[in-house]
Specification:
Blueprint lengths: L1 H21 L9 H20 L4 H4 L11 H7 L5 E8 L6 E9 L4 E6 L9 E10 L2 E11 L5 E13 L5 E11 L11 E9 L4
Antiparallel strand pairs: 1-2, 1-8, 2-3, 3-4, 4-5, 5-6, 6-7, 7-8
Length: 205
């Protein structure tokens, strides 16, 4: 019993000594460098929050269904759109390509697009929500952050699409409208675009 007590006292003493030795390091988190990085992160977050003021009126589209709906039921009711697509956006009524993307429609009413028109540094991933708007017809709205070539936050990209899936379920056609919002919530001059959009389903076989 005495040996256990002695061992316990020695352990407490050792821990106390370690705390004394390493106590100066506890101030590292308040160093100017770390504080500066934290301050810059807060500044970016504030800019992102500010930029949402101009985006939310467009992006506030409720996920279809109600609290009693199950994700699988929603998916089963809208099988035409769920899955992966290769999507092409055209400029106006021309054959000029505005964007080419890999697009994923999920069964819970959300969507994601990987754009080829922008590098990952500039922001090439957008997230959206979709809902049924008629027989094989769907509406989509999505947003994504944008950055300049130096990696600095430059605003938000917005996209609205109305599309109709073919009876065969392997292609879709529709129209889109797009623009960009600067960190102050203003539409970036020259960023507005619209035109036809075409998609073809990416299959496993």
């Amino acid at each position: 019993m005495k040996k256990v007590q002695i061992a316990g006292k020695l352990m407490v003493a050792a821990i106390a000594a370690m705390c004394t030795v390493f106590a100066p390091e506890a101030t590292a988190c308040s160093s100017p460098d770390v504080a500066g990085r934290f301050g810059r992160s807060r500044g970016l977050a504030a800019a992102l929050e500010s930029s949402m003021d101009g985006v939310l009126p467009l992006a506030r589209t409720a996920i279809p269904g109600n609290s009693d709906d199950k994700a699988e039921n929603f998916r089963d009711r809208n099988p035409e759109i769920v899955g992966m697509w290769i999507v092409t956006f055209y400029v106006g009524n021309t054959t000029e390509v505005y964007d080419l993307g890999i697009q994923q429609f999920y069964g819970d009413g959300t969507e994601m697009t990987n754009s080829s028109s922008f590098s990952p540094l500039e922001g090439n991933i957008c997230f959206g929500v979709w809902q049924a708007a008629g027989a094989r017809t769907f509406k989509l709205r999505h947003i994504g952050w944008t950055f300049d070539t130096n990696g600095k936050f430059s605003g938000t990209a917005r996209l609205s699409v109305t599309l109709t899936v073919s009876p065969q379920g392997d292609t879709y056609a529709g129209s889109y409208m797009a623009d960009a919002i600067d960190p102050s919530g203003n539409i970036v001059a020259g960023s507005q675009a619209k035109g036809p959009v075409r998609g073809r389903r990416f299959k496993a076989d």
